[in-house]
Amino acid sequence: MAGREVIAPAADAVAEALAAGRAARDAEQGPAPEDAPYGLLGGALGHSWSPRIHRELGSFPYALHALPDPADAARLIRDGDWRGLNVTIPHKRLAAEAADVRTPFVEAHGAANTLVRLDDGRVLADNTDLWGFAFLLDGFLRRHMGADASWLRGRKAVVLGTGGASEAVGSVLSEAGAEVARISRSGGPGHGYGTLVEDHGDAALLVNTTPVGMYPACPASPLPAGILGAMEGLRGVLDIVYNPLRTGLVLDARDAGIPAEGGLVMLVAQALRSSELWQGVGLDRDLVGRIAGELERGSMNVFFIGMPGCGKTGAARRLARMVQRPFVDLDDAFEMEYGETPAACIARDGEAAFRDRETAVLAAHGADTGLVVACGGGVVCRPENRRLMEQNGTVVMLDRPLDQLSRNDRPLTAARGVEALAAERMPLYREWADLEVRCTGSAEGDAVLVRSLLGL
């Protein structure tokens, strides 16, 4: 016991020192200046991973230019002191129009996501979404079909959406020899989602290029439940949305036993191609997987589930300090949101009302990234909570013998009895868990073990 008491404060001190060092480095670096040689142009950019990606690629400093007014965006394109710009909604067509030189794809489709300042001062408009999606597609097919893009030759591919991104995706699929059907939510036969199974049930691949399912309205899917499983020919699903890491569509596909991946690799791959154009050098393709992996590991939440009193809060808090991540106790978050403890809510309004509010609190944190979250013991009582965790998270079950559980201030445990709760919930804990951990005897030990097993 004494050894554990000494180790825990030491771990806290190390974590605090590391966090202070990181904060100092971030403060020293600060945001990129407006006249940075590289950057991202868009409307409301919010949080973007692009600066971090381009730091790794060597195209840095990298500034964020949130300019919703097209006139301001046009001035930056024409007169800004930059070498390379990525462009996102709503300025992709403006970028194509304002450029002096356009690649054939941009000329044909009128949308650019990458601008390059040439040596003579002219502006070149390109669309690296093609390269990025081709990279994502090739890796997906090799992992799940054991083949390259030639696997698509003669097969049907359905693309959800008819905007600029769908044009890039459709172009790549057509080049691979696929029969491409680009469909919108509304339209006549063969063009709407309502008849997807009847008209395109033989499709081998489905790709979502719409923003449906993107943060913060997540997890959501552009398709009703059950559609993917009813498409008998479907062998794979791709969603170019990368936040959350697993969209509702990706989770639907996995539930149906269909291989599926999100758009994080495409994001990094198109950035790599942009960086090559700006720097005039070739970059190692292995950078895509490494950077995407780092982003995913850093963004993935860790959710602790298990019986009431098993030590979830202590282990989660300790892990958060070790890996320098925000810690959330879902019960504390509930109290902050509703002004009362879960126990008080249950006593006054009943368990059903508490579960509704608990799900709302979980939804807010499940859409976030990079957290360590201790969940209440009954979080598995609502099936919809599983997706709220899976979209951006890894679920860890702490398993402690029933006779060692803490029973303080646990109204449901007192009312029903620990054995009855265990019979109801233990199968769900095991079904939901990505990782099961037998408690080591201390919160410190549990945290160290989880950190090791997850590679954090």
Question: Can you lay out the helices and strands and say which pair or pack?
Answer:
Elements (H helix, E strand, L loop, with lengths): L1 H28 L8 E5 L7 H8 L4 E5 L3 H10 L4 E4 L4 H7 L2 E2 L1 H6 L4 E4 L5 E4 L2 H16 L11 E5 L3 H12 L3 E5 L12 H5 L4 E4 L18 H4 L5 E4 L8 H8 L4 E2 L2 H16 L6 H14 L1 E5 L6 H12 L3 E3 H9 L3 H8 L1 H16 L5 E3 L9 H7 L2 E7 L11 H6 L1 H15 L2 E4 L4 H12 L2
Parallel strand pairs: 1-2, 1-3, 4-6, 7-8, 7-9, 9-10, 10-11, 12-14, 12-15, 13-14, 15-16
Antiparallel strand pairs: 3-5, 5-6
Helix pairs in contact: 1-13, 2-11, 6-7, 6-11, 11-12, 13-20, 14-16, 15-16, 16-17
Keyword list:
alpha/beta; 456 residues; five-stranded parallel β-sheet; 16 strands; 20 helices
Account of the 3D structure:
The chain has 456 residues and is of the alpha/beta class. It has 20 helices and 16 strands. The chain has helices at 2-29, 50-57, 70-79, 92-98, 104-109, 129-144, 164-175, 196-200, 227-230, 248-255, 264-279, 286-299, 312-323, 330-338, 342-349, 351-366, 384-390, 411-416, 418-432, 443-454; strands at 38-42, 62-66, 84-87, 101-102, 114-117, 123-126, 156-160, 179-183, 205-208, 236-239, 260-261, 301-305, 327-329, 372-374, 393-399, 435-438. The strands form three sheets. Strands 2-1-3-5-6-4 form a six-stranded mixed beta sheet, with helices on both faces. A five-stranded parallel beta sheet has the order 8-7-9-10-11, sandwiched between helices. The chain has a five-stranded parallel beta sheet with strand order 13-14-12-15-16, sandwiched between helices. Strand 5 (114-117) and strand 6 (123-126) form a beta hairpin. The relative contact order is 0.09. The model is unreliable at 1-29 (pLDDT under 50).
